[in-house]
Please model this.
Amino acid sequence: MRLRPYQKRDAAVIAGWSTDERTHALWCANLIPFPAAAEEFHAYARRAEEEYGNNGFTALKDDGTPVGYFRLGINPDTDSGFLGFVIIDGKERGKGCGEQMLRLAVRYAFEIAGLHSVALNVFDCNRAAEGLYRKLGFREAERTPECFAFQEEKWGRIRMELVVAEV
Model:
C-alpha cells in the first residue's frame, strides 16, 4: 500500500464507499449529504483544504486501486495534527487495509510532517474503528456524550490522541 495526495478523480470512488446512511454518518457526521455524489465530496474536500489546511490522502493498493482515504490537518503552532474523514472501501474492510493505511498516516505525520501528536474523533458506537485506533496506540483524551443524533440514536464522540513518544 502507498499514500498519495487526493486527486479529483478519486472523488467518485471514495463517495461510492458510503453505501448506507448509518455508515455515511459514522464517516462524515453528515457534513456531506447522503448519498454522496462525487461533485459534493470533491467540493467539500477542496473547502476543507482552503479553509482549514486539511490535506486529503488516498491509499492505493499495489496495483494503484484506491482503497482508503483520510484528511490530515496540521497545526504548526502546536506541532499537532488531526485525522478526519477516515474511510476504507467496504469490500476491503476486515483485511488489514485500515490498519496499514493508518500506520502510513501516522508515519507521515511524525516522520515527514514532524508532528508531536495526532488526534482524531470517533463516534462511541463505532467499536471497530475505536478498537483499531487503540491497537495503533491512540488513547482517549476526551469524551462528549450524546453530541450527535442519527435517526433515533444519540452518539457520543471520543477524541483520541497519539503522541510521538508513545509510538
Remarks:
- Residues 2-166 form a domain with the Aminopeptidase fold (CATH 3.40.630.30).
